[in-house]
Design brief:
about 325 residues
Length: about 325
């Protein structure tokens, strides 16, 4: 655990209520045993809750935001009588002195990829909900929204390696399987390597897709990998955090364990110097991440374990739709 860029705050508190670090499966591809009763209840709760939300709120917002995103630019050709004047490519027309129109090819369906951080830090939650549970709720809303729109959904689970890749498919059973995998990933790695995950995604997903990158983004931002992914796909990054990762309570000396490294430290949380550096480190991480995502051209939202997922996701959909309308009016392509 260290201060500065990449300061890891995902510590488990040494109190009776602390959550243990997630255990690793044996090396190789993780295999699932029978689901625990707790996980079954979580999946059922998520299915019921998000299904209702999708029907009442998100299905329409998803369709409104992504409709027409399956239409890709193919080529330009000279204008012919009867062509829709709205398809005129004014840039090419201005260069050539003759009117040209854009031709597009329509895809029958969208491909949605949920790229979800499965590292040990996702098990942290200072309240009743862990970051992993928040990730599963976000993924279920997005997955069921895509399902309602007849789109395919795939899952990429990663730590410091690619843990599992489930190719995009359709169907309710498939969507429920993705939720199960997120809640009980059985990872072989503990740390996080976003670059490796995004590089893998860009190799296996050749066609343009709608990609939701869900992580706590602790550590260094993979600037190059983010830029490459945002150019190839419609990339949205969702940062999940716990309030204790931003502000540590003043409770005197505390024993902390880093869930990813296993490092144990005893810190004086009542020290003004500690509080200042802790807050400063959190602010620096936040600024660095936003700068990286803005430079890449990716959309961004933040989800707290202490706040409802729904309101944040609604704001994100509305803001993304507004930006897209402005970009289209300005002649952009996003």
């Amino acid at each position: 655990m260290f201060f500065g860029r990449g300061f890891r705050t995902h510590a488990s508190f040494s109190t009776p209520s602390s959550r243990p670090a997630s255990s690793s499966s044996s090396a190789g591809t993780p295999t699932h045993t029978a689901l625990s009763e707790e996980t079954r209840r979580k999946i059922r709760r998520i299915e019921i809750t998000t299904g209702k939300l999708v029907d009442e709120v998100f299905a329409g917002k998803y369709e409104s935001l992504f409709k027409g995103r399956g239409v890709e630019f193919a080529k330009v050709r000279e204008y012919l009588p009867g062509d829709d004047v709205r398809t005129i490519d004014w840039n090419v027309t201005a260069r050539t002195g003759r009117p040209f129109v854009k031709k597009h090819e329509e895809e029958r369906q969208l491909t949605v990829i949920l790229a979800v951080d499965a590292s040990a830090s996702q098990d942290f939650g200072s309240g009743n909900v862990s970051k992993r549970e928040v990730a599963s709720e976000i993924a279920s809303i997005l997955g069921f929204s895509a399902l309602r729109n007849n789109d395919r959904v795939g899952l990429l689970l990663f730590t410091d390696r690619v843990e599992k890749y489930i190719p995009p498919r359709k169907g309710k059973r498939h969507s429920l399987r993705l939720i199960r995998e997120i809640l009980e990933p059985g990872p072989t790695g503990h740390r996080t390597d976003l670059s490796a995950a995004l590089d893998f995604l860009n190799q296996v997903q050749k066609r343009r897709a709608v990609v939701f990158l869900i992580s706590d983004f602790l550590g260094q931002s993979p600037d190059h990998a983010l830029r490459v992914t945002a150019r190839r796909h419609d990339l949205s990054a969702f940062r999940i955090f716990d309030p204790r990762e931003e502000d540590m309570p003043r409770v005197g000396r505390m024993r902390l364990r880093d869930l990813e490294t296993g490092e144990i430290l005893v810190l004086n949380t009542g020290s003004p110097d500690f509080q200042k550096r802790y807050r400063q480190a959190a602010d620096e991480r936040h600024v660095d991440l936003r700068r990286s995502l803005e430079a890449a051209g990716a959309d961004f939202a933040e989800f707290s374990t202490a706040s409802p997922v729904t309101s944040t996701l609604v704001r994100f959909f509305d803001l993304k739709s507004s930006r897209r309308r402005v970009t289209r009016r300005m002649g952009g392509v996003r």
